[in-house]
Amino acid sequence: MVILIAGMLVTFASLSVSNSSDKQLETEAKRVVSLMRYAADEAIMNSREIILKVEKQKYSFVVPGADNTFVDLGESDPIFRARELPEHMFFEGDIDGEKLVFEEKRDKEAEPDSGKVGIFSSGELTPFNISLMQEDGVGYDLAGEFNGTIEFLGKTEKQ
Fold first, then answer.
1. Within 13 Å of residue 112, how many CA atoms lie on the same side as its CB?
2. Class of domain 21-157
């Protein structure tokens, strides 16, 4: 009887942890979409381009700077601060038809691989299909179209 009860407790605990990480993943995916929509409004109102820079486990908003550099928008506006994903989450997908590929860099000083979604002052943006995934194959899909539409598409499961 004790073994049966202990087994049930372990089962419920693992389901609770799984549901918690799924909820955290969904919340983060919705946050990315909300921030992108806000950035689109900011780009139009301030007549400037904003770029969503996506790394494997991090994303940030930058603006073009001098000499082909980027300036972190989070330095002047905390809403757009860079965000690190929890260890079990990562991005995958494509931006403008190019698959996101993140490789480990041997040189720690090297710029990490990233994808860039342009959010333009005209209301247009670089088309993308991105998934915010976790290691068990559960993810949430996000999409953007050239006309400026940004959507949260919902849950997906990949093998």
1. 14
2. alpha beta
User: DSSP strand E in the chain: where?
Assistant: 50-55, 58-64, 70-72, 83-84, 89-95, 98-99, 115-119, 128-134, 138-144, 150-157
Q: Please, what is the average pLDDT of the chain? A: 84
- Of 118, 113, 105, 115, which is closest to residue 144 (Cα–Cα)? 118
CA distance 147 to 2: 61
71, 93, 130, 133 from 154: Cα distances, Å: 31, 14, 11, 12
User: pLDDT tens digit string along 54-77?
Assistant: 988 899 999 988 888 888 888 888
Instruction: List the alpha helices (DSSP H) in the chain.
Output: 2-46
